Amino acid sequence: MNVTFLIGNGFDLNLGLETRYSDFYKYYLENDPEDLISKSIKKVYELWSDLELGLGILLEDIDENQIEEFLDSKATLEKLLVKYLKTQNERVKFTDEAKILEAFKTAVVGLNGDFNKEDRDQYSKTIKNTREIIQYSFIVFNYTDVLDRIINIAIKDENYFASHVAGGARYIDVIDTPIHIHGELTENLVLGLDNINQVRNEKIKNDPRIINYIIKANLNRELGEGNIELTKDKIDKSTIICIYGMSLGETDGMWWEYLIEWLGRSSENRLVIYGDERGDIKLLGQERIRHRDANRKIMIERGRCEDNDIINRISNRIIIVPKSKIFDFENISILESSIKPNK
């Protein structure tokens, strides 16, 4: 049995890192104030709340003769993004690796801790009936490596990662090295749009330079690392998939479609979406249910599913956790940022 986590920027933000695009823009505009993209950000800042979608919007005003300038500007932005995120990486300090590892194991193995009773019992029943090794995998949508460092501690640990008992037998469970679907700070960083329809310019959207250098799936394929295939294989083999720290935005639409398709393949499959909402959702019965249904609807819409029969079959297998402390770590310290804001 496979359990797979999809991890987004919310993981880093939860630790206290300043990894929002809006955090990066301050650094970017100071270091590249007169580039094509930086000028656009300064002019219409509100359109760039999502950097990748902002690229698609900017392309509305680009003609064929400006494509090379746009690509050069994007390359400069990517280089500065790497430099900025490296400064954030350097802020992370592990104060007690043993306790971090224990907290991480508890979080992963006890991923159902914040489920409602029905879903929690169903997950426990699934584990008790799993007469095979459980393999925990991580698909990381971040460029940073904090999660990698935690998992490396787990992999190097002399003890096994986890175990479970089923049918009177004990099975030793394992954890995989993460897959960075969009590359890492050290190599193969991928930044762009989810699909060609996000290029809002009919005159250039079929230009090979746009297709090959702007669309993330094509960039991944051209890099030849097989990240898309590896990720799909992990999803295909999974019974439980958990989404943490991701906004279900349009820039990763291909994966929401794939997850909805995966969810419809088997009545055993479960999709868990951990939220970061604040407030008393847990205390308000009606609002908790409305919140669950609204988020299920968002996931299904992002997955572009319009078949009512499929929707009816999969909806109750999308588990919404409004707020969770699953990846809260007490023994990770965040040092003061080396980048000082302008006064």
Description:
- The structure is a single chain.
- By secondary structure, the chain is of the alpha/beta class.
- Helix content is 45%, strand content 14%.
- The protein has 14 helices and 10 strands.
- Strands 1, 3, 4, 5, 6, 7, 8 and 9 form an 8-stranded mixed beta sheet that branches. A two-stranded antiparallel sheet has the order 2-10.
- The longest helix is centred in the N-terminal third of the chain and has 23 residues, at 67-89.
- It is globular.
Number of strands: 10
Low-confidence stretches: none
Averaged pLDDT: 93
What structural class should be given to the helix and strand makeup? alpha/beta
Task: Tell me the β content.
Answer: 5-15%
Task: Please give the structural blueprint.
Elements: E1 2-7, H1 10-15, H2 21-31, H3 36-43, H4 51-58, H5 67-89, E2 92-94, H6 97-109, H7 117-128, E3 135-140, H8 146-156, E4 162-166, E5 169-175, E6 179-180, H9 208-214, H10 216-223, H11 227-236, E7 238-244, H12 253-263, E8 270-274, H13 285-302, H14 308-314, E9 318-321, E10 332-334
Helix pairs in contact: 2-5, 6-8, 9-10
Short account of what is shown:
The chain is an alpha/beta fold and 343 residues long. The protein has 14 helices and 10 strands. The chain has helices at 10-15, 21-31, 36-43, 51-58, 67-89, 97-109, 117-128, 146-156, 208-214, 216-223, 227-236, 253-263, 285-302, 308-314; strands spanning 2-7, 92-94, 135-140, 162-166, 169-175, 179-180, 238-244, 270-274, 318-321, 332-334.
